[in-house]
Amino acid sequence: MNYTAVFISIIVLLFTIYSFWWMNWRRGKLYISRLKHCNVFCSESKLYLEFPIVFFNSGALAIVVESLRLKFKHERQDSPAIHFNAIRLKFGSDEGRHFAVPFPI
Fold first, then answer.
1. pLDDT tens across 64-101, in order?
2. pTM score > 0.70 for this model?
């Protein structure tokens, strides 16, 4: 029996399984870009805060973002959070507003 051929075959099989896991099943972390600017404006009796947020997924497996909320560091822990409720196509306008839905990254 040729032990070299068996050894190389096992190494190739392990490499194939590892590379398949790396490209398809690896869970990553969700990273958020730094905010450089934001938009704040009032419409009738509501206050609108707009943040251009970019999400990065470091893994191969998709991560679904279901809900976002904004909490300020200087506020108390029991203070209410501001919840994510809409996506806008244009920054600073009320046109093209869609309800917030879960989205994969």
1. 888 888 777 787 777 777 777 777 777 666 677 778 77
2. no
Rounded Cα distance between 34 and 16, Å, is 37
Give per-residue pLDDT as tens, 5-32: 999 999 999 999 999 999 998 988 999 8
Cα angle 68, 34, 84; round to 5? 15
Q: How many domains does the chain have?
A: 1
Compute the distance between CA of residue 8 and CA of residue 44 in angstroms, rounded to an integer.
Answer: 72
Structure token digits, residue 53: 């947020």
Supply the DSSP string of 28-77, one letter for each residue.
--EEEPPP---EEEEETTEEEEE----EEE-SSS--EE---EE--TTS-T
Distance CA 104, CA 96 (A): 20
Range of the domain at 40: 28-104
Q: Is residue 20 part of a domain?
A: no
